[in-house]
Amino acid sequence: MRLKIILGIGAAFAVLAGGAALAYAWRSEIAPIATPSPASFDPEIVARGKALALIGDCRSCHTAPAGRVFAGGLAMPTPFGIIYSTNITPDRETGIGSWSGEAFARAMREGVDRQGRHLYPAFPYDHFTLTNSEDIKALYAYFMTREPVSAKTPANQLPFPISIRLVLAGWKLLFLDQRQLQPDSAKDERWHRGRYLVEGLGHCGGCHTPRNLMGAEKKAHAFEGGEVEGWRAYALGKTSKAPIPWTADALETYLAEGFHPDHGVARGPMAAVAENLSQVPRQELAAMATYLASLGPAAAASLSEPAAVATPSMPQSGGLQVATPPAQSDSGARLYANACASCHDSGRTLPLGAVPLRVSTVVSGEGPENLVTLILNGVPATNSSTAPVMPGFGAVMTDGQIMSLARYLRRDLAGRSEWPSLEATLRKARAAQAASRLK
């Protein structure tokens, strides 16, 4: 009899707990609206929304390769499975054409779509929640004036129970902080604007902050670096490994042009970010750079003296390269002399030259991901303005040669200890390169 009573109480408690959890997680649908006419939006607000969308990098995530802009369908690999970006054009059936401004704002701030479904945090609403109402209205105006594209978003490939969206309510309970930024009386207007953009719409911490096992940013380690799609998003501020500390001017140039002579070239996901930011009003980039530079002056890492191999002197025709230096005994040094030194030691700065590797974060950074990928794939030419280029060596160098070269760069040019993950990183990058060729 006592056992039945205990079981009964336990069952009742479980039902109550389940009901409470369901009530907490449940979000109601917001009624659909007739798609607003593009002419109903103020062109000035639309233009501001465009700049904000570029800062938010919306185009990069909501556009699939060879797909229509903002039509979604981009496969985003996560540690939990594949999540596909959604269609944010004003198509009524597959996009946001039936969304009201209220529904759009809820998605941005709470991560809940018009139908009441929780959104996966691959959509960085944990940052977008800081966006103010006027900017959300501007973004809404911009997206609702785009050309509607009928494109159904593929089903996410996620295991149970992550595939159940109600579970995300628990994630939000633990990690979604909707408190707004508070003013700092010691800082000026530019710094505040930069913080607002970097911490909010720009969601820089989404890549540059390490994440925990549940995919949330480790706030106690903000901007200490992270990994994104096989690339290393380097630490910013006081934990940066950059041999030459980043200044506000250098950051502004890097964000605007995608490269800086003292720091190198934006590649991987950052290349798309820089491409978008190149179209943003310069004062916005100056504000973001001001805030990022204020995260803490990086301790100026001692620059190692250039290795003996890096002293070529005779310019060749065109003046963009130098003569190949004498052969070295170390295999990595020989590879550097024959494949790299003619550009990287030419004394010519980016974009027509190359960054001296001993001052590049790609050699001194936290992990070898970016260096290995650059050696394999190079930096392809673009169809736009003058930009740095570099040949890829994946087809002509063996794994052993690439490891020798990477170790030489790390040890002799950067003066840093070897990366223990170098070999595993190279295997992974080779596999990614092979997979990309099959697509």
What does it look like?
The protein has 18 helices and six strands. With 439 residues, it is mainly alpha-helical. It starts with a helix and ends with a helix. Keywords: Cell membrane, Heme, Iron, Membrane, Metal-binding, Repeat, Signal.
Task: Spell out the key features of this protein.
metal-binding, 18 helices, iron, about 450 residues, two-stranded antiparallel sheet, mainly alpha, about 40% helix, heme, two-stranded antiparallel ribbon
Helix vs. strand class: mainly alpha
Largest sheet: 2 strands, antiparallel
Helix % is 40-55%
Return residue spans where pLDDT drops below 50 for at least 5 consecutive residues: 299-318
Q: What is the overall number of helices? A: 18
Q: What series of H and E elements makes up the topology?
A: HHHEEHHHHHHEEHEEHHHHHHHH
What is the gist of this entry?
The protein is mostly helical. It is 41% helix and 4% strand.
Topology, pairings included?
Layout: H1 2-25, H2 43-55, H3 58-61, E1 75-78, E2 81-84, H4 101-110, H5 125-128, H6 133-144, H7 168-175, H8 189-201, H9 205-208, E3 226-228, E4 231-233, H10 248-257, E5 259-260, E6 264-265, H11 269-277, H12 282-293, H13 331-339, H14 341-344, H15 361-364, H16 369-377, H17 399-413, H18 422-438
Antiparallel strand pairs: 1-2, 3-4, 5-6
